[in-house]
């Protein structure tokens, strides 16, 4: 099973995916951004833009995820913002054609909640800034309400643990590890955030 965790920037996709990974047996996190950054590194800066606009990103993501599902016996977790209907349909159709079972979730939150979350992320605290992500909020929030992006999970008043448990219940995946205590949970969140600062 492939579990795609969608959402605007700041919705909690990465934290949710890695906490779900910690609590599930034999799961794997597959991050499509890595393919995008590889494409960017091969292009001159003037040609980079949004890597999702490159057809080779979309085809590579679908083909690679299909390969991962074929070789990995456990759930495959994919944290990735994908809000353009054409791109979403292209990737989801390709995954369906490959025979992959895909469960899709969109983490929703109000724009003001997302702005607050982004303002407290490590990138912002260390001066890297989140200006690009901030500018995408309204576009992402509006797009993700479309029925094609169901199932929707409103996260404004949910903890990461509650989002993880909602996804596990909906997919029938058994959580084998318990919630972390408050202190360990904060440390793990910082560790996951630090590993995913994009430079």
From TrEMBL:
InterPro entries: P-loop_NTPase. SUPFAM superfamilies: P-loop containing nucleoside triphosphate hydrolases. This is AAA family ATPase.
């Amino acid at each position: 099973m492939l579990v795609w965790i969608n959402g605007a920037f700041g919705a909690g996709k990465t934290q949710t995916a890695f906490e779900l990974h910690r609590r599930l047996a034999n799961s794997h996190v597959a991050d499509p951004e890595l393919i995008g950054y590889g494409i960017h590194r091969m292009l001159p800066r003037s040609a980079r833009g949004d890597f999702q606009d490159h057809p080779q990103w979309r085809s590579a993501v679908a083909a690679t995820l299909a390969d991962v599902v074929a070789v990995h016996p456990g759930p495959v977790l994919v944290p990735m913002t994908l809000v353009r209907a054409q791109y979403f349909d292209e990737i989801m159709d390709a995954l369906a054609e490959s025979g992959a079972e895909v469960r899709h979730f969109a983490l929703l939150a109000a724009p003001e909640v997302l702005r607050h979350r982004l303002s407290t992320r490590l990138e912002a605290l260390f001066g890297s800034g989140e200006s690009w992500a901030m500018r995408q909020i309204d576009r992402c929030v509006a797009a993700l309400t479309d029925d094609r992006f169901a199932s929707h999970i409103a996260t404004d008043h949910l903890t990461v643990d509650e989002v993880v448990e909602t996804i596990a219940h909906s997919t029938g995946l058994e959580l084998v590890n318990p919630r972390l205590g408050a202190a360990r949970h904060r440390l793990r969140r910082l560790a996951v955030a630090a590993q995913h600062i994009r430079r």
